[in-house]
Structures are given as structure tokens and as C-alpha cells.
Amino acid sequence: VYEKEMPNLVDYSASKSAPSVFRPATLSGLALLQALVWLGLGSYSLAVGAKIWDVVLPVATAVTWLYASLRPIVWPSQTVFYDLFILYLAHFVPGFVVLAGLFFDHSVYQLPLPSQVTLVARVVNLSVITILLIAVLNMPFAVPSATIKEDEVGKSVSPEDYCSLWDWVSFHWVVPLIKKGTHNTLNEDDVWKLSPTLSSRPLTSLFKGLGHASIVWKLWAANSGDMIWDFLLTLISVTLTYAAPFFLQRILASIEDDPTPE
Q: Which residue has the higher pLDDT, 239 or 10?
């Protein structure tokens, strides 16, 4: 039912364009390089008799990068690698925090920076992760099938279904329509057709095909994902709202207790 009612939301196998080799090769190659470096670091720590944590952490990190190197080759796709995107973020955030913390401690507490080799290694590591993040952010959600004319995407066909992850997150896919409407009057032909994911007929067909006897269970099956995400994001929003005055109070209290430059 889904494929019949939504012909322009297709997977990789329905694509009429050949898959690009450059992107998966880049993702796999850089991830493999990361895995080898972290594995070498763990092996070196083991050889010099370092603490167990200094051995386990690099090896565990190398395992995650090994998965990242195999994912684009073993399970190729022209659409977004959501698992790799989450994995790259999980590596980027602590890497950025640690690197920024080194410069913060040096600037505020006058602590010495680590050796030049360590500093360069952390910068290179963060740069590689940034390149991988950019590569995934530029991957599309879907690719046009043989029934969809690629030149009509963004004209009569909504680009939301085929835009990149970055365009979707930043809402950049609506910029062409906004630019056109800023200086000209928009006519009905200028507006894209409604995406099949929002059209009533495909959604009704999907709802009927859920297979639950109870209407309550059908409603839950159809909307549970959105409800869970809405709850989690609302919880995060409320937490961040109260975090601002909480940390401001902590900062003011720290200044009052210890009015030093630090």
C-alpha cells in the first residue's frame, strides 16, 4: 500500500541513478583510518603498562570506528545514514568539549597546554569527524524514482522529500519559494504539490493497513513515534528553560564566594 500510494518516496533499490562511489569510499576510508589510530593508541597504552581505562577506552572507540568503516560498504545507501550521523555526533561533542576545555584551562587557570603532538592529534581528529558529519548532512532523504522527473523537484514536486539532511534541519529547502514570493506574487502553479507523507489519501490507506482491530490501538500505532518525540523534546525544552537561571545563580554565587579573576 505504501509503495502504491507514495510512488515518489522510494528507497535505494528504486533509484534510477547510479550510486556514487566517492561518498561511501570517503566515509569508509576516514573511519578506517580513525579505527587504526585509536587501536594503535590502545596497543601503545597496553605496551607501556598504562591504566586499564587508558587501554579500554581507545579500543572501544576503535570498535565504533570499525563499524563506521564497514557500514557504507556492507550496507550501502544513497540516502542518509542515520546511525552514522548519531555516531559521528557522539564522537564530535566530547572531542570538541575536551579540546575547548584545554584552551579554557590554559586561558583561565594558566595551565600548560598538552604537547604539540597531542594538540595536533586532537585537532586532526575533530577535523576528520567534521568532514564526516558534513558528508552525511549532505546526503538526501530519498532519491526520485523512475516515475518522477528530477527537473520537476523544486518546481511542481515538493523538494522536502528529496532534500539533504542539512537542508531539512535548517529549513533551507523552502528558501527558493520564499525568495520567489518576496519579489513576486505567488500563483497556484508556483507552489509545490503537497508531499505524499502529508496527503490525506496515502495516509488514510496507511492507517487502514495497520491491522489493529481497536481504533485506539490504530491511533497509537500511527502516532506513537510523533508523540514520544514530542514528549522527549518538550522535556528537553523545559529542562533548558530552567537551566539558564539555575546556572546563572551558580555563576553569581561562585563570584561572590571567590572573587578572583578565575
A: 239
